[in-house]
Fold this protein.
Amino acid sequence: MGERDMTDSILVADHGTWVEITLNRPDRLNSFNDEMHYALRAALEAARDGGARAVLLTGAGRGFCAGQDLGDRDPRKMDGPPDLGNTVRTFYAPLVRLIRSLEFPVICAVNGVAAGAGANIALACDVVLAAESAKFIQSFSKVGLIPDTGGSWHLPRLLGEARAKGLAFTAEPLPAKKAEDWGLIWKALPDEELMTEARAMAEKFGNGPTLGMGLTKKCIQAAAVDTLTDHLEMEADAMKTCGESADYAEGVASFLEKRQPVFKGK
């Protein structure tokens, strides 16, 4: 295991088959400035290009992420209004697209408050675990904004239109246990168990049949826009790829030989 700093705002611990990435601006509740954006994207790309088969994303200190650091987008300190559309296109949209395109599982361990873009970055990940003390807050309406970073896309798909609009309009905090009950996240855990379980999951995924898991991710994400006919064809193509893989051969052999499989993600 090795740990290296891409920048002070991001910590990266390389565990071989999986990588743990920690948002590290705890004095600002890990809110995003431009430097942290570039560093997080670079860390995710390095994990992908370095052959990682899973990523665990979490936050330092008492919160996961409070979204955008509004001090960097304060109209009072600027010559004119900020171009927040440019902020989305330059930083948040590419980050969401990158997380969704990674061909392996991305786990998010929400260790505390996840607000604004911080909440929606978590929702862009594949499996979200949260400490029971954590809360998800669509805080955008408090400052006259819309739920960006994929929020207005993910919320209605995960929760339905009524709950999506309620959370977006009221900006009421959603406790982790209710988020689990509503189907917004995978699981809420006692605070002291969060990172142990998250790391165990990352280890399991990182040593799992990640070719098939990557294709599973691709198929499930495509279901939001596919017709059933097109999707059945996509499943057939994915199954052909999986059936020709070393992971499938190893999975069948280990099952019949009653032993633990050794997957390579290929």
About this structure: The mean pLDDT is 94. The chain has two domains: 2-206, 210-256.
